[in-house]
């Protein structure tokens, strides 16, 4: 029996995709994480403020993580966190393999590639450790607070979980990545400014996070208010 005859006999079949928004938030979470990790390879100096390029998007990773935990629960958010962790490790390995592969004749950007995407064990370790610890604590604490507040006081669990998660993430990443490279007051400045900035951004974006969560809850038929 030919392939076409087989299709006609059994019918062409596809798996059904659900109407849940969960996959979209999972994809956004992983994408924002990978972009932020690449941006974090550059230190940025704005006047007295020292931070890294990850400051532009990385706080959004926590906001998306908050949406996942608030709507789908800690177990569902944890799956996405582990997926993001796996993608970050895969990206680091891939960049390393590209880095050590022989460059083609006429391609003169090896040093430029290494300076931006080159495998730096210390940065990679800092990134994956800070992310995993910070995100798990953020998600766990949000779910824990929700157990007490139920559907009330969303702002308490959003800000409270960010304070805990970002603190752990910032300390772990900054210490592993740049302790000894940035020293003294500059290192303290780097840690404090990064932490305060990321936490304040969560507060500033509450007018965006609130309606986003409300919208997702309305669109999820299995969510019970």
Automatic annotation (TrEMBL):
InterPro entries: YhhQ. The chain crosses the membrane at residues 21-40, 46-68, 80-99, 119-142, 154-181, 187-210. Keywords: Membrane, Transmembrane, Transmembrane helix. HAMAP family: Q_prec_transport (MF_02088). NCBIfam families: queuosine precursor transporter (TIGR00697). This is Unannotated protein. It comes from freshwater metagenome.
